[in-house]
Amino acid sequence: MKYEEWSKISRIASKKSLWILHFCTGCGAIEMPPVMTSRFDMERFGMAPMATPRQADVLLITGYLTVKTLKRVIQVYEQMQDPKYVVAFGSCPINGGMYWDSYNTINQLDKYLPVDLYLAGCMPRPEGIINAMMELMEMIEKGEARGWEKYRKNYEKYKKNQEMAFKFGKVEE
Ligand code: SF4
């Protein structure tokens, strides 16, 4: 079934049962345990951690990404089923953060994978994470989180950038 054919009720159900795979690449990952446990309790919003890509809806990239890790992140993303959503968590995957001139980290995740939501901060606090996830839910309900479609449509462009990063370290900014 095409995404446009989803009924409103399907979208609401979908947004209220998000399974999250957090790929803990950097220091921001340390803010996830309080979000997942009793202090902030993300399950009250229908979000639950998921250990495998094939069952996950949301891929959280929680920090800087080396080229070597980028390869694994892409493999994980491609194993997830549509519709799927990517959150760039913290400054590093958004603009390179404090590692912007590192020889071995990429500066913009969205050159290699479609990012649905940018969550700024170094590192974002649990309240910010919950807030961002609520925003993602709204986007899902409105049909605005369509990165997975963008990836399919622009696959050649993403592949070219990925290959350049694997070969030369990172795509020129
Ligand atoms: S944004 Fe800050 S907290 Fe997150 S990975 Fe980069 S340096 Fe670490």
Note down, in words, how this protein is organized:
The protein is α/β, with parallel strands linked by helices. The chain has a single domain (3-168), classed as Rossmann fold, CATH 3.40.50. It is built from 7 helices and 5 strands, in the order H-E-H-E-E-H-E-H-E-H-H-H. It has helices at 8-15, 32-36, 67-79, 91-95, 126-142, 147-153, 155-168; strands spanning 19-23, 48-49, 58-61, 85-89, 117-119. It has a 5-stranded parallel beta sheet with strand order 2-1-3-4-5. Strand 1, helix 2 and strand 2 (48-49) form a beta-alpha-beta unit. The chain is globular and about 45 Å long. The structure holds iron/sulfur cluster. Residues 26-28, 63-64, 90-92, 97-98, 122-123 line the site of iron/sulfur cluster (SF4).
Give the gist of this structure.
The protein has 173 residues and is α/β, with parallel strands linked by helices.
